[in-house]
Specification:
Blueprint (H helix, E strand, L loop, with lengths): L1 H50 L8 E7 L3 E8 L2 H12 L4 E8 L10 E4 L3 E5 L8 E6 L3 E8 L2 E5 L5 E5 L3 E4 L1 H9 L2 E4 L3 E7 L2 E10 L3 E8 L2 E5 L5 E5 L3 E3 H7 L4 H10 L10 E2 L2 E2 L1 H10 L3 E2 L4 H4 L4 E2 L14 E6 L8 E10 L4 E6 L1 E6 L9 H4 L2 E6 L9 E2 L5
Parallel strand pairs: 2-3
Antiparallel strand pairs: 1-2, 4-7, 4-10, 5-6, 5-9, 7-8, 8-9, 11-14, 11-17, 12-13, 14-15, 15-16, 18-19, 20-27, 21-26, 22-23, 22-26, 23-24, 24-25
Length: 405
């Protein structure tokens, strides 16, 4: 009886030991898996920060799901090099990789990798719905890269690399061949703040559409006081000769300068402030500076927080003494011991011995750093963050307008 009892106790102890060992093993495996998961997430985040630190201009929405035998990666990205880099680094773990990432542009675009803005201004939104925030705009004739199609909305990338959604009514989808034909065709650039394309040169009541500063149309002919033009979708009409110029001739004669920058900036005086706006119909602060530089033949970053990263820093001591006409001035919240600097506003320095600058705030208007000036802007002077010089500087973020668009 005593022996039987000991044997039972021995079996129970062995069973308990086995269960404890199994629990410890599973716990250890769980800890190892958790550790791997955290390490893999760290790799993924590092690659994202290297290739797509700014989600406004690059997409890297990739997630990693791991188990003991394999790794599954999901999401979407337009950074193929980053995706390949991630897969290479994951291979070092010796696990099977299931790649379920959608690479943009994806198959939804079909045979239409491009779109061209077909209205005077196309509204480009943060999400694919009309009620979404206005992220930016693109003006007539601007070529866009199409990344994917979701119903009546297209995810597009503008020439300044901004990525957001445009509705189908504002653009014309194009095949590779269509876009090449559009790009190489002779163009007309519109040089007034506002205007129209007329259905007939003899009847200025019937209009085909409206125009904003910098708009591009295909040039099909010249007839007296009018240019004959065509829209991206094939609509035709007439533009007053005195209001426009042949695009290549305009570009060829273009000489970006502080004076020219001031000329176009002042031509927009009184234009209303519009969050996300980049046209003479309405513009936000960085949309205003972007438009003024565009009319000087330059494509610059879209937002103020991006614009401060380009060009040359010319006022590190915040004294205003090193500024020249045409420099960009930045404003916002200064850095503290616990917070980073936050750029929220941008203006163009005019100088002219009165300490004046021009910016879009409520409307396009003049401000000044001079307390004695009627335009003194104490609010912005107190939140001045520094200035950058674009004109004459070599920077990949400051690109010339294309000769072919």
């Amino acid at each position: 009886m005593f022996v039987k009892r000991n044997l039972k106790m021995s079996h129970a102890l062995k069973h308990t030991s086995f269960l404890l060992a199994l629990i410890c093993f599973l716990s250890l495996a769980s800890c190892i898996e958790k550790g791997n998961s955290e390490e893999l997430s760290g790799i993924n985040e590092r690659i994202k920060m290297e290739y797509a630190p700014d989600k406004r201009v690059a997409i890297y929405d990739v997630k990693i799901v791991s188990d003991r035998n394999s790794i599954r990666i999901t999401g979407e990205t337009d950074q193929n090099e980053a995706l390949n880099r991630l897969k290479e680094e994951l291979k070092s773990y010796g696990l099977k990789i299931h790649d379920e990432v959608s690479l943009l542009p994806d198959e939804s675009i079909g045979t239409h990798p491009y779109a061209v803005v077909n209205n005077s201004v196309a509204n480009i939104r943060s999400f694919p719905k009309h009620s979404a925030e206005l992220a930016t705009q693109a003006i007539l004739g601007t070529g866009l890269k199409v990344l994917k199609i979701d119903g009546d909305f297209y995810l597009v990338q503008t020439p300044d690399r901004y990525i957001s959604w445009v509705d189908h009514g504002g653009v014309q989808l194009m095949t590779q061949e269509d876009f090449e034909n559009w790009s190489t065709a002779p163009k007309l650039v519109y040089l007034k703040s506002f205007g129209h394309v007329y259905a007939s040169k003899d009847d200025e009541i019937q209009k085909v559409g409206d125009l904003v500063l910098g708009a591009l149309l295909r040039l099909t002919g010249e007839d007296g006081d009018f240019f004959e033009v065509a829209y991206p979708d094939g609509r035709v009409g007439y533009v007053r000769r005195e209001e426009a110029e042949i695009y290549l001739k305009w570009l060829d004669e273009l000489n970006p300068s502080p004076e020219r920058l001031e000329l176009y900036a002042r031509s927009l005086m009184g234009a209303p402030y519009l969050w996300g706006g980049t046209s003479s119909k309405g513009m936000d602060c960085s949309g205003f500076t972007k438009t003024a530089f565009r009319m000087n033949g330059l494509i610059i970053p879209r937002d103020a927080s991006q614009q401060i990263m380009a060009g040359k820093d010319i006022d590190p001591d915040l004294s205003f003494e090193s500024l020249s006409k045409g420099d960009l001035m930045f404003f916002g919240k200064k850095a503290s011991d616990s917070t980073r600097q936050r750029v929220t506003h941008v203006a163009i320095w005019l100088g002219n011995n009165r300490g004046e600058f021009i910016h879009s705030s409520g409307r396009v208007k003049i401000g000044s750093i001079n307390p004695k000036s009627p335009y003194y802007d104490e609010f912005n002077v107190n939140r001045y963050l520094g200035s950058r010089r674009y004109l004459g500087e070599s920077d990949p973020q400051i690109a010339p307008l294309p000769f072919r668009n």
